[in-house]
Amino acid sequence: MAISLTNAAVDRIKNYSSQVSENGINLRIGVKKTGCNGYAYVINYSDKIEDDDEIFIDHDIKIIVDKKSLALIDGTEVDFYKEGLNEAFRFRNPKITGECGCGESFSI
After folding, report:
1. Which one of 6, 39, 59, 93 has the lowest number of neighbouring Cβ atoms within 10 Å?
2. For the residues 82-101, what does the mean pLDDT come to?
3. Collapsing DSSP states into helix, strand and coil, what is residue 88?
């Protein structure tokens, strides 16, 4: 089980992180039910670790994922892209079976 970050995602997170704790950068990744396909990714900085969280470390960044979300996003690679004025994180999730046209939600 793992969540990984591309170099572009690491650069974005490290360059724009305003919440660096004494333990470094903690990034919480999860999913919420929404959109036309069922789920959307949620990504935030967080120092809070719950009992049902799994922790992965990639490029000195602690990635925190709750177990319910991990069941849906295990194996996902988080990337960051910038195209002209548009920029966003992209998630390469091997478990998805469909995505909406705008790329905001996915199904499993």
Report:
1. 59
2. 84
3. strand
Q: What is the pLDDT of residue 75?
A: 93
Which amino acid is residue 39, in one-letter code? Y
| DSSP E strand boundaries for 1-108 | 4-5, 20-21, 24-34, 38-45, 53-58, 61-66, 77-83, 86-92, 98-99, 106-107
Confidence of residue 101 (pLDDT cuts 50, 70, 90): low
DSSP assignment letter at 68: H
Give the pair of three-digit tokens for residue 108.
Answer: 């499993």
pTM above threshold 0.85: no
Our measurement of the distance from residue 16's CA atom to the centroid of its chain's CA atoms, rounded to an integer in Å, reads 15
Both tokens assigned to 71: 């069941």
| The one-letter amino acid at 96 | I
